[in-house]
Amino acid sequence: MQISTLSNRLSRWQWAGLASLFVIAFITIIQYPLATTSTDPISASKNAYSLTASGAVSKFHLLLPASGYHFRLCRAVASAIALGYPVPVLNGWMKEGDLDASKTHLAKVRTVMQYLDSLPASSDDDLVLMIDAYDVVFQIPPDVLIERYFAITKAASARLASRYGVNSSESLAADDAPRQTILFGPEKVCYPVDWSRVGCWAVPQDIGIPRGAFGPDDGQLQHNLPRWLNSGTIMGPAKDMRLMFAATLDRIVKHYDPNHEYSDSDQMYISDVWGVQEFARSMRELRQYFHGDINPNAAFPTNEEKVVPNLEPDQRTEYHIGIDHRSELFQTRAGSDYVLEMLTFNETTDVNGTTTFATVTQNIAESPNFTPYEIYLPSNLASSITRILRLVEPAVGVVPNVTDIALETNIVTKNIYGMFHSTGGKDWIDQLWTKLWFFPYVRPLFEAMVPALQAGWPIAVADGRTWVPSHTLSANSSVIQGINATGVWKDIDDGWLSWQELCGAFHAEVFDGYTPPMDD
Q1: Quick one: CA torsion of 59, 64, 67, 70, rounded to 10 degrees?
Q2: Is residue 235 within a helix (H) or strand (E), and if so which, with residue range?
Q3: For 446, phi and psi rounded to 5 degrees?
Q4: pLDDT digits over 331-365, tens only?
Q5: How many whole angstroms separate alpha carbon 43 and alpha carbon 462?
Q6: Is the peptide bond prior to 192 cis by the omega test (within 30 degrees of 0)?
Q7: Which stretches are transmembrane (predicted)?
Q8: Would you kindly state where each structural domain of the chain is located, as residue ranges?
Q9: pLDDT in tens, 88-112
Q10: Which residue among 141, 235, 314, 379 is least crowded, i.e. fewest CB within 10 A of its CB?
């Protein structure tokens, strides 16, 4: 099986030198702003690794529910390690029965719940990112992802505060008050399709994107707004994630029907937990104006028969769930193929070249007298990618400027997405793998990231806190450098799984981009 020829040419002392250069570079980054050089046209005055005055530290957890070996799992792990994410935890690894994800999707809920339950109360404010293990790959580094998460959730919470009125007797800080802390990926249709389900009809109509932005408002999947929930990518605080997963398990117990076609669909139960939340939010808002009983059929006019939730007076319905409608973090594939473009942000109107953009010529909305428009490269993303590229420069030689690489972008929402979730067929993600900007440097990036993963160096500064990885590399590993020093953790008690054990059989698929002919 082929492996990277570049790595084979590097000797042990070269890799050791690279690790030393990484240590020096990282310490410099922490203590001093990154200097802008003539080869980098992006202003890097904002340093995502600067320590904050508060000194508060929180952890960032990366969970991958996975039941067994597969090359796509290795690509997910590789993209995470190459970009500086925490060492992943595989939930449900080689489990049996109700915890075997190869037998039921509900195992994902159960195994992630076990992990969340294992965390101490001191981890309640930690951030947890859970992704489907076999059809997701990362595109942007974790510092930018975390910054975006807080920007999205704070803006959404502010809108909710306005929606319920500043004079509301209930503080938005209360546990059951409407706010947003958990983000799910977006979906262009309610799946599993059953328009009587509350997770299909009670969802918000206004998502901040006008109808028709994705094409004619004709009900075709690709033209729909991304209004619904996809459960394959989730990010939020550990405490709120625990409550949300507990509510999902409770709903499974109460509504599970072995004869239902989608009885093992985790997305069905989770989206209904969200649907009940949105139903309760809407009814609560309406009561502010009508001061009495509200007819749900009038409040949610549809042509479909609805199963209306029967809520108890003291029933909890608020789980702070929201959707990343604009795909700033999560880009799902189904219905979105045609709005995704690999863009190179190498145009500028700035004399100093500090503001760069790409021009879009596709008329997605089919607007009369369409005018091409610009999508700008965010400065924090440019700086973060530039730092990562420079980490491998001693090993690979000259690396491209950030304005010379291609980044896949949703040209309707104008966002360079954080990660790609290939819902539906998997051929798309296989084609994407070799086009990702970091693919030519996957192996040397592995080598360069080892010291950081061993020491648990900071990932980001956001929300007034410094974020560090929840898990580092195994301290008991006999290998201390190179790709085989990396690996993953198995659940909460099953120990360490080295890269060689997990992915040694898939080096060609990961490092050379080879994909087996059969879509298994």
Answers
A1: -130
A2: strand 228-237
A3: -55, -50
A4: 999 999 999 999 999 999 877 767 899 999 999 99
A5: 19
A6: yes
A7: 12-34
A8: 142-323
A9: 999 999 888 888 677 778 899 999 9
A10: 314
